[in-house]
Amino acid sequence: MSRPERSILPEGAAAGTLRQTSVSHIAFRVPDVANAVDFYNRVLGMQVHSVLADGGFRLGWGEGHHVLDLLPGDKALLHYGFEVRDNGGIDGIRDRLTDANIAFQAIDDSYVDAAVGPVDGIVVHDPDGNEVHFHSAVCRQGEHSADTGRRPIKFQHTTIGTPDVPRFVDFFTAVAGFRISDQLQNGHFCWMRSDRDHHTLAVVDVGRGGDIDHYSYDLAEWNDFKAWCDRLTDLDVLVQWGPGRHGPGNNLFVFFDDPAGNHVELSAEMEKFHDDRVEYVPRRWKPIPQTVNLWGGQTPTWRKVDPEVRA
Ligand SMILES: [Fe+2]
User: Fold this and answer.
1) Is 52 helix (H, G, I), strand (E, B) or coil?
2) CA-to-CA distance for 21 and 222, rounded, in angstroms?
3) Residue 118's pLDDT band (boundaries 50, 70, 90)?
4) Distance from Cα 101 to the centre of ligand 1, integer Å
5) Which CATH number fits domain 155-302: 3.80.10.10, 3.30.70.1140, 3.10.180.10, 3.40.50.300?
6) Ligand 1 centre from 256 Cα, in Å?
7) CA 269 to ligand 1 center in whole angstroms
8) Three-class SS state of 171
9) Which of 31, 89, 99, 213 has the most other CB atoms within 10 Å of its CB?
10) From the CA of 2, how far away is ligand 1's center (Å)?
């Protein structure tokens, strides 16, 4: 019997190159910036780091690198970023982009906070045209310590919606150096890692590109979910999905929306991968609701269930 392919999705030659790379920041246009800033301050405990030139605000925790840019306009994803702490990581991405004839630019100083030190980085576009930043290590003072129930530990992952999962996965594994952790059997959802966490980036087929499906912040532990759900209720923020536990990643989750309608996830207990000790083969999850919600099988209201799941 022949051995099955390692993955049903294309996993490019550079897969696994990045092992110390995490999400860094994300930027949205939102119709009401003041309302969104107030929301991220009250609900997620973020502080304004700086005022941006075109009427936007830069937010984060502590005095380190920022997490979120909010700029005025119709709801849109502006860019998403990764902090590459791997030795030679940025140079490697640069080389692979050059080999693949994909255009990129040096990261603009305006994306970097003065407090975090000099940064080497690039700006490139993913296969759907979304702007992606890869930058070198920055100081993140003030993160990685939760004020239980009031602010998460860190920005944890971004999940992008796309019409073409294989193309997206090929770019992030062949060029950027991510590795596939899990996938749906039908290839319509893929979870990718770039450090020990099961996924720092995921991609789901939503029939179109140009926006996130959701993005996620880490809580410390399960007990925090109780405090968060009660607090969200006190703040008149409705829970949109969960609490539950995902199959891929095994992480606990609960979802709510920001005022612009971006789906925000809180998660904990994400599976860790120790690639230096064992060779993992990406699993192939059934495209059924129980895959994304082991406890109850419900899917989020905004995400269509594959027609084959209904059969
Ligand atoms: Fe997620």
Assistant:
1) coil
2) 25
3) confident
4) 31
5) 3.10.180.10
6) 12
7) 12
8) helix
9) 89
10) 34
